Amino acid sequence: MKINRIRILFTNIFIINSKGKNILIDTGYPITKEHFLKKIKYDIDFVILTHTHFDHSGNAIYLKERGSLIVVHENEKDWLLNGSTPPPPGVGTIGKNIMRFSFLKSFDFPPVEPDIVISDYREIAGLLVVHTPGHTPGSISVIYEDVAFCGDLIMNLSWRPSSHLPIFAHDIKKVKESIKKLIDMGVGTFYPAHGRPVSVERLKI
Ligand SMILES: [Zn+2]
């Protein structure tokens, strides 16, 4: 499987081909529409949103308009339909301060109607989509062989080498449980939306 990692501002999005289908994981910020559409040269069959924060779901509408099927977890279906997701609480001093002082006052994005709604597990074109809550209630990860595209379940931030836990989360205990769940399923490498891939051996939680 070829993994095509594209950076849209601060977010990694991934294009992979499985069983003859092109799958896009996440879509980037709503303000990046032109850059995003320039990078997406292929027909995309499925757009899997790891969760509905605006830096992941922001451009989904433009692929929906081209006929891609949009995949989201049932816990965030309404947020996607409304184009608005509540900001997550900060974790630790850094996360709390970012949420308190930052420009991140609006998490809104163009609303999209999903085509496929996930609950616990679902196979899509040979990929396993798994519910991995914690960062948000409806966070999902996409597993292929021993790789997990995990959205914000982990973050690999260069300015914060001491931990790979996300700096924002609705439930940090569930984050840890979801990471363990993926490791128990045989995941060897995590591909986060922020930062470079991390192997299980190097993972700091
Ligand atoms: Zn997020």
What is the gist of this entry?
It is built from 6 helices and 12 strands.
What's the CATH topology name?
Metallo-beta-lactamase, Chain A
How many H/I helical runs?
6
Q: Could you give a short account of the major beta sheet? A: 6 strands, mixed
Mean pLDDT: 93
End-to-end span in angstroms?
28 Å
Which stretches are poorly predicted, pLDDT < 50 over at least 5 residues?
none
Which key features would you list for this structure?
205 residues, alpha/beta, Metallo-beta-lactamase, Chain A, six-stranded mixed beta sheet, 6 helices, 12 strands, 22% helix, binds zinc ion
Give an overview in words:
The chain is α/β, with parallel strands linked by helices and 205 residues long. It has one domain: Metallo-beta-lactamase, Chain A. Helix content is 22%, strand content 27%. The chain contains 6 helices and 12 strands. The protein has helices spanning 33-39, 54-57, 60-64, 77-82, 92-101, 172-184, and strands at 3-8, 11-18, 21-25, 46-48, 69-73, 116-118, 121-124, 127-131, 140-144, 147-151, 189-192, 198-199. The protein has a 6-stranded mixed sheet. Helix 1 links the parallel strand 3 and strand 4. The two termini are 28 Å apart. The mean pLDDT is 93. Bound molecules: zinc ion. Zinc ion (ZN) binds next to loops.
